[in-house]
Amino acid sequence: xxxxxxxxxxxxxxxxxxxxxxxxxxxxxxxxxxxxxxxxxxxxxxxxxxxxxxxxxxxxxxxxxxxxxxxxxxxxxxxxxxxxxxxxxxxxxxxxxxxxxxxxxxxxxxxxxxxxxxxxxxxxxxxxxxxxxxxxxxxxxxxxxxxxxxxxxxxxxxxxxxxxxxxxxxxxxxxxxxxxxxxxxxxxxxxxxxxxxxxxxxxxxxxxxxxxxxxxxxxxxxxxxxxxxxxxxxxxxxxxxxxxxxxxxxxxxxxxxxxxxxxxxxxxxxxxxxxxxxxxxxxxxxxxxxxxxxxxxxxxxxxxxxxxxxxxxxxxxxxxxxxxxxxxxxxxxxxxxxxxxxxxxxxxxxxxxxxxxxxxxxxxxxxxxxxxxxxxxxxxxxxxxxxxxxxxxxxxxxxxxxxxxxxxxxxxxxxxxxxxxxxxxxxxxxxxxxxxxxxxxxxxxx
Length: 446
Hints:
alpha/beta; Rossmann fold; Dihydrodipicolinate Reductase, domain 2; Alpha-Beta Plaits; 3 domains; six-stranded mixed β-sheet; 33% helix; disordered N terminus
């Protein structure tokens, strides 16, 4: 990739004045909920940063979209507030923390900074998911660190764990509850019997969901986060469009109640797993989907807006981490952690793209698993036999059946299957007459 940027200056960061390390100059891109929280954290926890790094930190500049707008905690006499990247660069920052969000102009700003050898810490999941390869190429060329812990799961240090602590291991599977909004909603539906609409209204009232909740409830937010984590876990390039995402808009209070009878809870689960390819080699299966999770599984107990990630691999076995996945202070703590890591490591450390290979994405039918099926059928003799026959016709075996009257000549039929390919189940259900149909995969206990 060609670059017309200024040749990078990759001299070590700790310049010294009169024998002592001068304060590290930090610039912020964005001063909203996350950027403002990071600024307060750096001021209020100055001594913690000093103890961890043996350096003082000062915020030298803040880039915002509207430089004339008054902002709490910003003193224009000591900190430049600007809407110009060139003006920010003129303050000679040692490291830049990005909390602007969005793709542009943020992407262009970060490329400029990395070209100049300036380390960057970012909380921008969509940017890393969609342009990570480009950003890492420029980081390596510029000799600048690019850290992105805050882009996934807020205060949960999952990126650092995968990229550094588990770098010498082989990860086989990663499961996660990566979106706090949907987990809050599903928890409310489980604990209080709320329907989808009421749970969403509560999430919006409490600030967990945006006025337009599409990115959360359709699984798009979790898909972006999964593409980042899977790329690191398996050392592969992951196109966010390769993550099959199904949201929770089709989950009803009735489904939640049936799941409880089956000893499960419904969770929006993000999954990445190594699978053997039919002709040899390895593929990676990637999806975000509502699932029935056994109550004995570690992810079943994750409630409210909490995030959690489960990692299986060798030789460590299984690790589970959980914590606050969103919010200004939580995300700011992850940004600050990356900032401390930048100050405490060599300039060339972690500049390279962690995607060293390209594993093909597994087809949808590569993974056989159990399924939950709910349907509205005519309440008359022979219907259950007809459904069972349709399933048997494509090799789908029934594990358990629940049936109850639904009124007006209809019955609700709930079936769980033994492991089967999704395509076989689709083919069988195409031959079943139902006025309402919900199909969800079921997570195994192991």
